[in-house]
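Hey, resending since the last one bounced:
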Amino acid sequence: MLDELLRTGLAEVDDDGLIRNTGRTYIPSQLDPAAIERLGKVLARVADTLDFNNKVSAPPLGRYERNVETDIGLTEEQYQQFNIYLRQKCQQLLETLDNWLAMQEGRIGGAKPPENRGRGGKRIMTGVGIYHYVDEKLPFEDEDESGSN
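The structure tokens again:
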């Protein structure tokens, strides 16, 4: 794993041999086994959330799933501006959520997680995924760019 983090620029090893985190976003290369596994997890999680929300009797008990979209579409320039804005704001949100989760787990903030983890000590693995969609392939997006982030 360290080799992959070093290869992708997400970690550095200093002169003393200490590992320093240099980023928060890991994106595996195409056809990499990790990319295929990630694809499966993302699709399964989205499908599971949609399925769960279809079955829940009271909407407030469902899982958070929302989207926003254009009514009349954007120009190419507006789309490119939106893409930059989207990446900035979503990254900020994901980092805020990651920090909150890390504090709850005692990974940051100096606090230790509570010994009693709720009823029966069950741990709930959870998270949030954000994705950007376009209803058709855009002629100005290069293949390498469209699959990279």
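Residues 86 and 132 are 8 Å apart (CA to CA).

Sorry for the duplicate.
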